[in-house]
Each structure stands twice: as structure tokens, then as C-alpha cells.
Amino acid sequence: MSGPVQTTVKVKILARLVAGILTWSYTAGFIPPANGFNQGNGHEGRIHIIAPGEAEIVFDLDDRTGWRLRFIPNESEAIWISRGSVCPIGPGDGDGQFIINRPQNMRLTITNLNTVQGEYCYALRFDSDQGVQTFDPIIKNGP
Hints:
The protein has 1 helix and 12 strands. With 143 residues, the protein is mainly β. The strands form 2 sheets. Strands 3, 4, 6, 7, 10, 11 and 12 form a 7-stranded mixed β-sheet that branches. Helices cover 3% and strands 54% of the residues. The protein has one helix at 75-78; strands at 5-18, 21-31, 36-39, 46-49, 54-64, 70-71, 79-83, 98-100, 107-112, 118-127, 133-135, 138-141. The protein starts with a strand and ends with a strand. It has one domain (5-141): Immunoglobulin-like (Sandwich).
């Protein structure tokens, strides 16, 4: 199923309202730092994992909206992952490349098995007082 984690990616997601519109941004840090990098502006960027081996990705939500955002509690609904450059429109685990752990309100942890090079689009999904909200950056495996 899964082996030792070689890389940990800590992703901090900020949700806030700007002129009443929900806006997202994120930062990603890699442990060890040489195993990956963040491409983009923190809104529509890519998390690029260049090291071989499994990567644990930890998403932490900082909700400053007042909407009581939290990860959907069902792991198949908290994140949708698809292979390729098209954002997912339904549940998926990236053709088996990702193991999704049970969400814990403001935190979601997944394991990227990283056995296939390619680009994976995902949609992080949150419950809120305003209904389901989605944020969707991209994960890229390989050089």
C-alpha cells in the first residue's frame, strides 16, 4: 500500500472575504526543502514535488471569512483529485496515486504515492454557512 514518506508538504490555505467575495491563497513549505517547490502566485499555482518517493501533503485552513469553513468530513468529498490538466468535477483519488485520510475540520492529510509522473488537479472542498466552497490548485509529480 504505502512506504516511508520521503517528503512532507505543509500547505497553509487562507480563506478571506474581499469586498464580500470569497478569495483563496496558499503557501507551501517542503520538508526537506530540496524535495519540491511552489510555482505560481499562491492563488492558482502548482505544488511541484520533484523528489522520488511518497509525499505527505498536509492542508491547514485559516478561515477568516466568518462563514465557519471546514473540510467536508467525508474523505471522498473533502478532496477530489484527477490526473491531467482538467479540474475534477466529481470524486476521485488521482487513479490511485493518492491516499486520502479522514479530514479533521481545519486539516486534511493525504499521501501522494508519487509512482507516476504527471500533473494532478484537485479540488479542496469545504462545508460552510454559505454551502459547499471549493479551492483548486495543482500537484505535479516528477521533474
